[in-house]
């Protein structure tokens, strides 16, 4: 590379594919058949994409908060990489949600202009990490569950979800592997790390149940082979979780009640009631149909989500009408 | 070929390698002064990448669009990668990454003084890409021809990525300048704050640069500080015009005779203050790095204990 040629490369304005490491694309759904299958309820499909997108967006945000704080440089790279993968998945899913909804919103309106009660992520995604052990425990649970989900989504009747599933499987396989390796290292490391890893496993366990509790939207879309019924993912999750904990010389937390156990199961019976978050209505629309102690899929969140949104949305909301 | 029994042949081989513009490789004999200088330079560069993650890293969670967030996250990840790459190059000279990190935290090794300035708005992300990465590229492209092989090769990859970062930064600024009056003000304000510190990135003027002569002779360095600074100014002025921002220097004017842009005097006392630890963010940057290192200590110890146990079980 000559000295002067390097400068020329900076001043020309051709837009090659490497401009933003694959992040600069204008249309995240380019090349995929985006027609909504005929027998699919658009509001349901939009709500489902929104929920899976919110999981990825909020989990990515928590990982972004670890940037410059990781225990080793290799982990700095790995965590940023995982955060970037999940952000990419969030963008695809939110874009799909907006497109199917067809109400003039886009990925940024969905990410930046909704309040906490309109977010549909599981509570696991929003939890603060007390230390690195808590992060890897939470990441292991999240990635194991999501990998099982994305793997089944590759067979979805919606071509976009199938494509997102196929892309995500490769990524999340690595996320799960990364987290599992750390859980094992810390569990089977020093007495201190063992103690901290066990505390992290105990702390994350109450958040697991929510991941497998079917929401009415998921049930309806699973019936037409578009979505995955999360309850079907439990055996795979349990097997992986048990295997990793064993290798890590950790014990499963026994008989822990789920944090969001009550109230939500009742909502399953209210088939068709939940269109909140997919209807494009004002904040809070539809939420009164649910018990206040429902789960994240019903828009019921912990205070941690409000903190995340204050950080995520602050700049965007302070400068309305701006292009970025 | 050991350091304790330097032969004339060793020294001659080294001198010839330099004279012929060839690369010195890790196993070649080299003068201790060359080794020390290379370790210091590569370590400072690695530290700069790692500390440099902080000012922009602060904006990842706050980026106002998902696309900008992805671009910024990828950029900060690249910087971690550059740091890793450079620490590895320093290790080929016998340095140890952990030891270099301790030297950084204890203030015994420096990093680029530019990262001791705060990032006050999202426009700073764009201006850092345009001006700070631009200045870094001016400094670093000649290093792709550094006489030390592993460093030169690391720099080729780093420069390619830095040039993408610069374009991304400039593209963000272009978008903001097409936006609302508030956005244009943000960009101008950021340019006002970063212009002079960017010029200082090239180091003191040539007549006050203590290590330059030896580094030029060893072909670790290829151009003088003032020469690179001039290149940067010449490159940036038309870019500022295209952007529609004013560079905060009333003495900036084209000199037909020299064929270069003249610019006003640099406040070197500010650079001295910032280098000696008295910049706006020196303490914060080091404190963050120290805390991450300390909070990660138990994790690294656990990984080492686990690896030992696995090794014993396998043996």
Automatic annotation (TrEMBL), chain A:
Residues 275-284 have a biased composition (Gly residues). Residues 253-298 are annotated as: Disordered. GO terms for cellular component: cytosol. One of its GO terms (biological process) is phenylacetate catabolic process. Pfam families: PaaA_PaaC (PF05138). InterPro entries: Aromatic_CoA_ox/epox (IPR052703), Ferritin-like (IPR012347), Ferritin-like_SF (IPR009078), PaaA_PaaC (IPR007814), PaaC (IPR011882). NCBIfam families: PA_CoA_Oxy3. This is Phenylacetate-CoA oxygenase subunit PaaI. It comes from Actinoplanes nipponensis. The gene is paaC.
Automatic annotation (TrEMBL), chain B:
One of its GO terms (biological process) is phenylacetate catabolic process. It comes from Actinoplanes nipponensis. GO terms for molecular function: phenylacetyl-CoA 1,2-epoxidase activity. Pfam families: PaaA_PaaC. It comes from the Bacteria. InterPro entries: Aromatic_CoA_ox/epox, Ferritin-like, Ferritin-like_SF, PaaA, PaaA_PaaC. Gene3D superfamilies: 1.20.1260.10. GO terms for cellular component: cytosol. This is Phenylacetate-CoA oxygenase subunit PaaA. SUPFAM superfamilies: Ferritin-like.
